[in-house]
């Protein structure tokens, strides 16, 4: 069972405006956005065929043949729609917002195609928020995760819970809300990437943005037609203009960063149920770009597995692999054409117009993610390039670009020796991902969550990541490192100090739960030619 989750914001800046068919700017799928249209065309031909993805929010998109609202519009065809964990009733729960979000993923409209127009979408509406809470939201999510015989690769969450509805006394964003624990549990048990819309506006919907195992998505706006700036409506970290009173209320306590990726979300042209076009803004529309990109990558992975190509196995379906690949391939600083910045296509700037090279994440090895930018801006084509070389184990020298899914024992290290020397002043990107361990307190032993059950947080093992010069056996000083004690992502983006041979080291620094830790690693380097 292989799934990925994406959770999206319905804060005050989730705006919709009518728009003429002749939109000023093109699709967010073009090279100015996430560069996914290239993957739809030969020789790639990736559109999400046969890949199941999911959607959970308050309402649901209409389904042709079931709902009158879409009786004249076949641009979007979910495989199945539900009310929580039961089949949806005709003409009930249909919601334009849910339709907009679904259209980003799977629209077949010729003018405004979704990121993965041939993916199989399963959607569940939680229903009225008055009577429904986190238990019902968890139940809905689990139900979607179990569709398609338990093979749903990605799930989009375009809503969340305000803290004032959390039943805990003095509730804060500490990773312990029921829905947050549910997502981190489901990520591991159902093998799902949760891509989660970042919090936005004032009072927003912060739960479950305090998850560990998903990918939280902030949204970008255009400058001169290019999606390359973190929109001002996104909530920043507490070190970048958010007052202390919001710590725990709108952003995570303890300094743990929330955002993993940025994706287009400002003035996005979207299809309505009636077939007309809207322009909308919000992290609700950024997250589905990530969800559906997973579908494109997973179609490619299944194709590689079917043809028995070397370096491809069902490990490619693992949620940690997808997270590492997406985060490591993100755009940070535009390449000048010499390839030294890994061919990145755009420079992303934050709300203060600062780029990655002046961020604390770049300068401080204990901070893997930028508070506003995460690891950078989603680029579907670069994610494909990161994924393409396949899986490489540490038992033999590895190519300059690749990924692995593996395990590490407590108090040990695993080393990946790069086969070719690295070029001085070229950049290296390496991302390490692993899960917080959350278990179900399963009262009736049915191995499924029920609304009267809870979860057990068993904490997070601490892994660290190093780039080490391999030429000098006497020297074990790392050229670059990522050593967060609180995150389950480590991320290196640094220039190579001197031409030479290097190795990537994964270190199991501190055991908190199990002594064997599964992890995924993705790397992108520039070899000497």
Features:
23 strands; globular; 529 residues; four-stranded antiparallel β-sheet; 9 helices; alpha/beta
Descriptive overview:
It contains 9 helices and 23 strands. It is an alpha/beta fold and 529 residues long. The strands form 5 sheets. Strands 1, 3, 4, 5, 6, 7, 8, 9, 10 and 11 form a 10-stranded mixed β-sheet that branches. Strands 14-23-16-21 form a 4-stranded antiparallel β-sheet. α2 (96-106) runs parallel beside α6 and α7 crosses α9. It starts with a strand and ends in a 5-residue tail after the last strand. Mean pLDDT is 92; it is low at 7-13, 18-23 and 238-242.
Given helix and strand content, the structural type is alpha/beta
Number of helices: 9
How far apart are the termini? 41 Å
Number of strands: 23
Strand residues, percent: 15-25%
Q: Identify the overall geometry.
A: globular
Rg (C-alpha, Å) = 21 Å
Helix content: 10-25%
Mean pLDDT: 92
